Amino acid sequence: AVEGFLNLPGELHLRAEELIHNMNQDTNALTVKRKVFSKKGALPVFESEFAYRGRVYWRLRADGKAQILAIGSKNTQAKDLAYLERTLREKQ
Length: 92
What we know:
single chain, alpha+beta, four-stranded antiparallel sheet, globular
């Protein structure tokens, strides 16, 4: 997630920080674009947008806090989803 954040164009950094701050405050206030992965027995992964082009992939941990898994843009979406699928498959 950190690498994805650092690779964002400069104008998206502030919007990403804003979304992360809001996520830290109250995940119920986030707009979820879609549920990306929801395997049996696994915690679902959600996609939220920021500044139209930005994407944050996250899930709720067992303690109710948000865990950011990947941050990217519309241009890196396919790579980010492939990373998530590999990572989640390895953890099962």
